[in-house]
Amino acid sequence: MEETSQVSPETSSQAAPKDTRLIYEVGFHIVPTVEESKIGDVVQKIRAVLDSAKAEVIGEQFPAKMTLAYTIERSTTGKREKYNDAYFGWMKFAVEDRESIPTLEGVLRSTHEILRYLLVQSAIPEVAAPRRAVFSSNRLEGETIKKPTAPEEAGVVSEAELDKSIDALVTEEKI
Fold first, then answer.
1. Cα–Cα distance between 142 and 145 in angstroms, integer?
2. Contact call for residues 87 and 56 (beta carbons, < 8 A)
């Protein structure tokens, strides 16, 4: 007689409702020639596109100035500009459909203040349960772990007592 336990599909689908939204992340570099007071305007332009697409922003980091790993060159208005640093920021958002993504890419591509960007589809964020430390040992089974007590203070030992205890240890080993 073999017993098999199966979970019925009805109970497993009722356990957690499926979120059908698509999760995306966009990372972007803003050119360093933009004044710090105007960086919020560039971020607001990206946020406006997300708002029009009814996207929910899950997480974001406001752009902060950083040194780039290599020099990025870009040609604008007939001359080449070289950048060694930029303001980097990112946003993670959820949308219902993919139709709004080309619009966002168009805005990112056409915004002159954005040096580079990367738009990727991301995994669904999972809420991690807090981890508990679990100790297992068969020698401590059923016992409560106690706090260690403070060690006894060392006292002054005379040489005669020390020699006597060493002799006692040595004679015990020979027996």
1. 10
2. no
Q: Cα(88)–Cα(100) distance, rounded to whole angstroms? A: 23
Report which of 116, 121, 117 is spatially closest to residue 100, judged by C-alpha positions: 121
Non-local (6+) Cβ contacts of 91 within 8 A are 25, 26, 46, 47, 50, 57, 59, 60
Instruction: State whether residue 36 is helix, strand or coil.
Output: helix
Token pair of 74, please?
């870009």
Segment 88-104, tens digit of pLDDT: 999 999 988 888 889 88
Q: Which residue has the tokens 């080309």?
A: 102
Give the start-to-end residue ranges of the domains of the chain.
19-122
Residue 169 clears pLDDT 60, i.e. is over it: yes
Cα distance between residue 91 and residue 97, in whole Å: 17
The structure's pTM equals: 0.59
User: Does the domain made of 19-122 have the CATH classification 3.40.50.1820?
Assistant: no
Coil, helix or strand at residue 138: helix
Asked if residues 91 and 26 have their Cβ atoms less than 8 Å apart, the reply is: yes
pLDDT tens by residue, 146-164 = 777 777 777 777 888 888 8
CA gap 80, 71 in Å, rounded: 12
With residue 141 as reference, give the H or E element that holds it.
none
